[in-house]
Amino acid sequence: MGDRMLETLNAGLPDLGLSPEMPVREKLCAFARAMVKQNEVMNLTGITEDAAVAKLHLLDSLTVAACVDMDGKTLIDVGCGAGFPGVPLAIACKNTRVTLLDSLGKRMKWLEEVLPSLEISAQCVTARAEEYVADRRESYDIATSRAVARLNILLELTAPYVKVGGFVVALKGSAAQEELAEAKNAIKKLGLSLVETREFVFDGASHGVIVLKKIAPTPAAYPRRFAKIKQAPL
User: Cis peptide leading into 85, omega within 30 of 0?
Assistant: First the structure.
């Protein structure tokens, strides 16, 4: 019986234009397996089957590396959940300094324990996105996020972290274009400009990656308190 997760990962990497060395691929699978194991006692994912984990967690996360140059950059994964896309990016892009940010203490505690055991280097921060930014405003090259909120809400939580000249990379499903249209105003107000939308297909489902460049500082009024952001998105 072959290693289904590794085989599926290997099969999908060429479509992303990525060719990490075998130890990197094995470490990606080792993290994914640790997450599936932990999922037995903690709600981390609804996706647990090997091939699906490889496509919908690992390959999906690595689309960020397929869309922006990450070499030597700093990246913050806002609302990282079980560690996606931040952990696979930390594994695959060794010269990228990754910060994982989530407000759920239990998840972050697990990440703080599991990452060193797999020799994965990333900073884990337990905080709300709209509060932690007070210490880290415009200090990252890249902010990324997956499945956290609709784009017009998400951008207010991510853009303030990014330096002018840096990028916000949002991982979205098939509604990427619709969310982009809805976020026109937010893009303008937050100092962003659309670079491209790339589509990747996993298991017949469309995964849109929206890449925005920070072209001007985000006004100090943003981000607002989360209740306000939700109630009145930009």
Answer: yes
What is the structure's pLDDT at 2? 59
**Of the candidates 65, 54, 66, which has an alpha carbon nearest to the alpha carbon of residue 28?**
54
Closest CA to 52 of 26, 32, 80: 32
Residues of the chain with pLDDT under 50: 1
Sign of the dihedral defined by the CA atoms of residues 61, 64, 65, 70, in that order: negative
Candidates 208, 103, 85, 96; CA nearest to 157 is 103
Would you state the pLDDT for residue 93? 96
pLDDT confidence of residue 1: 42
C-alpha 16, offset from chain centre:
16
Read off the pTM: 0.96
Half-sphere exposure of 165 (CA within 13 A, CB side): 4
Q: What is the Rg, in whole angstroms, of the alpha carbon atoms belonging to the chain?
A: 17
Please report where in the chains the tokens 């990747």 appear, as a residue. Answer: 200
Residue given tokens 């490889």 in the structure block: 54
Q: What angle do CA 102, 229, 214 make, to 5 degrees?
A: 75
Alpha carbon 174 to its chain's center: 17
Report the half-sphere exposure of 77 (CA within 13 A, side-chain side).
Answer: 27
Q: Token pair of 20, please?
A: 């990490």
Distance CA 73, CA 93 (A): 9
